[in-house]
Amino acid sequence: MSVLKITDLAASVDGHEILRGVDLEVGSGEVHALMGPNGSGKSTLSHVLMGRSDYVVTSGSITIDGEELLGLATWERAARGLFLAMQYPVEVPGVKVIDLLRAAAAGGTSTDRRLSEEAARLAVEPEFLSRGVNDGFSGGEKKRMETLQLAVLAPKFAILDEIDSGLDVDALRDVSRRVEAMTEETDLGVLAITHYSRLLTELRPDRVHVLMGGRVVVSGGPELADRLEETGYEGLAADLGVEPTVPGAPSIPADPFADPGF
Ligand code: ADP
Ligand code: MG
Fold first, then answer.
1. Ligand 2 center to 86 CA (angstroms)
2. Is 56 part of a structural domain of the chain?
3. Residue 190 falls within a domain, yes or no?
4. Total domains in the fold of the chain
5. What is the pTM of this model?
6. Cα of 162 to ligand 2 centre, how many Å?
7. For the residues of 189-250, what is the DSSP string, one character each?
8. Which ligand has the shortest distance to the CA of 52?
């Protein structure tokens, strides 16, 4: 049993405070959904957890089993068991999927075998494994590929940043079932960032949190996602008396990795 613990986390970018004191705790085998409107800081949280260098952490801590991750490089956080499936996966032409995963999973024939098994489970065609990482992949193929990497690397905790965006219903079902199975097979803890409760019908959350204005403003059980379907974020924000987005944040494209291609 491991615990990913985020305490009073505040972070800025270009001098603008985006995260304003986030508290979250995810245990092994648990699924936590993090919902929130556009611009509420969800992707920022995922980048800060993974240690992207242009985000400045101004307070708080991020620990796995009590060990502080702040100050560690991204690869060191990954080695401690943290994995991020990005909202906009980066294309890396020239680096084959199979070579990336051989290197990341310490290589050997067992990696190749696991990779083929997992590819079959996720309905990824074998020829994709010898293509460049995400090179020319469709939105849905990229998300399957993120899930394939997750399954092969078998981390302790996975942050899934809108894994459901760009997926058709079949892909959504394959991806969410695979992640749900990992919570049982390898005791994976999941922080699933999503706008929509659609993802949460297959990937059943134990807890649902709503991020608004850079803070978790309300947490609850799966019924909170249903309530959001009815009220919308504006309605919930009005009920709670909070601002839905980060006040005063720059109105630039929300994610510099944004890929307009899908
Ligand atoms: P969400 O994922 O919830 O839609 P983001 O975390 O992407 O929200 O963005 C939250 C706010 O932070 C937005 O106003 C966005 O413009 C701003 N922001 C995020 N990343 C950057 C960045 N690298 N530079 C400047 N502003 C950023
Ligand atoms: Mg986002």
1. 9
2. yes
3. yes
4. 1
5. 0.91
6. 7
7. EEEEEES-TTGGGTS--SEEEEEETTEEEEEESTHHHHHHHHHHHHHHHHHHT--SS-TT--
8. 1
Output the ligand 1 site: residues, CB below 6 A. Answer: 13-14, 18, 36, 38-44, 54, 246, 249-250, 252, 254-256
CA-nearest residue, atom 13 of ligand 1 = 39
Q: What Å distances lie between residue 253 and 17, 52, 122, 260, CA to CA? A: 16, 17, 31, 11
State the Cα–Cα distance between residues 107 and 96, nearest whole angstrom. 14
Let me know if residue 252 belongs to a domain. Answer: no
Separation of CA 129 and ligand 1 centre (Å): 32
Ligand 1 mean position to 185 CA, how many Å? 34
Cα 217 from Cα 232, distance rounded (Å): 14
User: What's the CATH number where 173 sits?
Assistant: 3.40.50.300
The residue to which tokens 């009590």 are assigned: 66
Please name the residue whose Cα sits nearest to atom 15 of ligand 1: 254
Range of the domain at 154: 3-240
Mind listing the pLDDT tens digit for each residue in 14-73? 999 999 999 999 999 999 999 999 999 999 999 999 999 999 999 999 999 999 999 999
Q: Which residues contact 189 (CB under 8 A, 6 or more apart)?
A: 2, 4, 26, 27, 28, 29, 30, 31, 32, 156, 157, 158, 183
